[in-house]
């Protein structure tokens, strides 16, 4: 991992990450561990080997829990277990998502419900599950991972882009509702991050070249490129920032 800034207030913080054992999530887990945070994460599969690797690399072992985030009761139970182990969760990163490609005319109700349950429903109930602990702790930071896909008007995964738009709308509403409790809620919208999954399934040379043409910075994104922004939003350094969407995409879309 490239050098990242150190945020002293994250040392000892109780952090919960969904999908924290692979892709962008794995880099986020490592980033928080290197800050000295107490990290718990959920993954659908057993992530013990990854936890072993992180402990060897950082000297700080994450709590790895098995969870299908579409199972709301299991997600709540994992959040409660993490809070019991590490103290009230003061940083939540809703990261897990599924951007499976699909065409509008092929979508049936079952696929739609499956996509929304992963990509936005689990985010809402993850937020709901940490709110009371953050209130008791005097505040906290929630980071909801969205995507620039809906900002670009991309085709090829309409259920996914719909969820992305919902995430940013939900972020604004929760920021307004819980700002009085010193709970900050922000979204982070990455560009096309070349995880192993993306490279294996969808990153054809032609599509990579076409995307590069849209980028101001002519270098494709790696998972570790997202870490700094998430740490900033988690830290009290960004204490006056809430209800916002931060974009990290190499300059594909412009905001403001």
TrEMBL record:
Gene3D superfamilies: NAD(P)-binding Rossmann-like Domain (3.40.50.720)
InterPro entries with a match to the protein in the record: KR_dom, NAD(P)-bd_dom_sf, SDR_fam
Start and end residues of each Ketoreductase domain: 13-205
SUPFAM superfamilies from the UniProt entry: NAD(P)-binding Rossmann-fold domains
Pfam family of the protein (one): adh_short_C2
GO molecular function, one term: oxidoreductase activity
Keywords for this protein: Oxidoreductase
Family: Belongs to the short-chain dehydrogenases/reductases (SDR) family.
Name recorded for this polypeptide: SDR family oxidoreductase
């Amino acid at each position: 991992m490239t050098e990242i800034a150190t945020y002293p207030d994250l040392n000892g913080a109780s952090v919960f990450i969904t999908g924290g054992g692979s892709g962008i999530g794995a880099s986020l887990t490592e980033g928080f561990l290197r800050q000295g945070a107490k990290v718990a994460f959920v993954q659908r599969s057993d992530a013990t080997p990854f936890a072993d690797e992180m402990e060897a690399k950082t000297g700080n072992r994450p709590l790895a829990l098995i969870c299908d985030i579409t199972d709301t009761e299991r997600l709540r139970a994992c959040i409660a277990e993490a809070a019991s182990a590490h103290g009230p969760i003061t940083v939540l990163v809703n990261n897990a998502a599924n951007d499976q490609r699909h065409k509008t005319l092929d979508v049936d109700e079952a696929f739609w419900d499956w996509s929304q349950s992963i990509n936005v429903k689990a985010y809402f109930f993850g937020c709901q599950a940490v709110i009371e602990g953050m209130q008791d702790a005097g505040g906290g930071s929630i980071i909801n991972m969205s995507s620039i896909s809906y900002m670009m008007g991309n085709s090829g995964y309409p259920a996914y882009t719909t969820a992305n738009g919902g995430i940013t709308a939900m972020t604004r509403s929760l920021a307004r509702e819980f700002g009085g409790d010193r709970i900050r809620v922000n979204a982070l919208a990455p560009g096309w991050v070349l995880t192993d999954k993306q490279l294996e399934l969808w990153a054809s040379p032609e599509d990579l070249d076409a995307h590069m043409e849209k980028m101001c910075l002519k270098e494709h994104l790696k998972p570790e490129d997202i870490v700094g922004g998430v740490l900033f939003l988690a830290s009290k350094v960004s204490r006056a920032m809430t209800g916002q969407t931060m974009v990290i995409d190499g300059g594909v879309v412009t905001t403001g």
